[in-house]
Write a structure and sequence with these properties.
The protein is α+β, with helices and mostly antiparallel strands. It has helices spanning 3-13, 24-29, 70-84, 93-110, 149-159, 181-186, 196-218, 232-253, 266-272, 276-286, 296-307, 312-319, 323-337, 344-360; strands at 17-23, 41-43, 47-55, 58-65, 132-141, 165-168, 173-179, 221-226, 259-260. It holds the Pfam family HTH_30.
Length: 363
């Protein structure tokens, strides 16, 4: 609310009116309802606080000295709410509804309410069908101007489906929900019933395609995480938190990777929770040669070996080298590090050491 309107409101009410910012937690502590919206009012014996705008976990409010009559409070709340939902130039009803849902999801994630269900007051709730595929899109560095909501929605729908929903969350971050029908359409075998592993392979392929589309249109650095089909009315908050963590772990442990799959970062999630001092000490104690992972060829060989489930033949194909060349490299690692990655226990240790080294070397 601008200064002129504040002065006009103060004159109408014959009292002092000022603006202030509260966190959602402060609002709740003072007696306000959870998940506040513009137009909600909190009355205390000596003042009245009105929410004028919700920005993530922060609330822009006006603080009014004294109390309001029930009619004054109702009229003021109505006026503020009407002003807050006034669409920006060119904004569609769908965009306004999507932004409103995105604000609610962001507030719930910030509050740690991962099990919160989308409330009935959200207009898009009736478009959240069971079995939707969630993508989290994070584009922090776009070469060209960031696309508008309409441009990005149109581009994504050309790749996924017409009933796909684009929900803005934070700056440069969007939740994309698409019908699970995209999985059967992407399945070249045409199987009606997809297995769990087949589903994950198709999701990875779709994510790569979406990433290629976004970067070809706008360039820059773009990260995308995908989850298995969910019931979004019940799990929207949880999946956003999960996919955010997936992108965070992927960027932390696998620099340069831009496609992030939650089922591939279980070990990274565990290691991330270990204190930094413990991680560093473990690396120092376990590595026979501190400079082992400074050799790019060694790191590339191990990355490929682990990505191919420690299969020698498949790793050699992936690296475009002869099988004997790969065996020579693995023997060299065994000689220099004292760990044989063809042995299960040693492979686990080397996998952990490599992940930790990738983090500690950047400290």
């Amino acid at each position: 609310m601008n200064k002129t309107r504040l002065q006009q409101l103060g004159q109408l009410l014959n009292t002092s009116v000022v603006t202030k910012v509260l966190t959602e937690a402060e609002w709740v502590r003072q007696g306000g309802k959870k998940h506040p919206e513009a137009g909600q009012i909190l009355q205390t014996p000596d003042k009245c606080v009105v929410v004028t705008r919700v920005q993530g976990s922060e609330l822009e409010c006006i603080d009014i000295d004294g109390t309001l009559s029930p009619l004054e409070a109702e009229l003021l709340g109505w006026a503020v709410k009407q002003n807050s939902v006034r669409p920006s130039s060119g904004a569609s009803d769908l965009e306004r509804q999507a932004r409103r849902l995105g604000e609610w999801i962001q507030q719930s994630v910030t509050a740690g309410e991962w099990r919160a269900e989308v409330p009935d007051r959200m207009e898009l709730r009736n478009r959240l069908f069971d079995g939707m595929v969630p993508f989290l899109l994070l584009c922090e560095q776009l070469e060209d101007k960031e696309p508008s909501y309409g441009e990005l929605e149109k581009t994504i729908r050309t790749f996924l489906a017409d009933d796909t929903l684009l929900i803005p969350l934070r700056e440069h971050e969007w939740l994309v929900l698409s019908s699970d029908g995209i999985l059967t359409e992407a399945d070249s075998d045409g199987d009606e019933m997809l297995g769990h592993e087949e589903t994950k392979e198709l999701l990875a392929s779709l994510t790569e395609g979406l990433h290629e589309l976004i970067t070809s249109e706008w360039g820059g650095e773009c990260h995308i995480a995908v989850g298995e089909p969910i019931v979004p009315s019940e799990n929207a908050v949880r999946i956003v938190a999960t996919l955010r963590e997936t992108i965070f772990l992927g960027r932390k442990f696998h620099v340069g990777m831009q496609i992030h799959l939650p089922w591939l970062v279980h070990l990274e999630r565990l290691l991330s929770g270990i204190p930094e001092t413990v991680r560093s000490r473990f690396v120092e104690e376990m590595m026979g040669r501190p400079d082992l992972f400074t050799d790019s060829e060694t790191v590339a060989t191990l990355d490929a070996f682990f990505s191919m489930d420690c299969n020698v033949s498949e790793t050699a194909k992936k690296l475009f080298i002869h099988r004997n060349t790969l065996l020579y490299r693995l023997d060299k690692i065994k000689h220099e590090a004292g760990l044989d990655v063809r042995s299960f226990n040693d492979a686990v240790l080397v996998r952990i050491l490599l992940l930790l080294y990738k983090v500690t070397k950047r400290k």
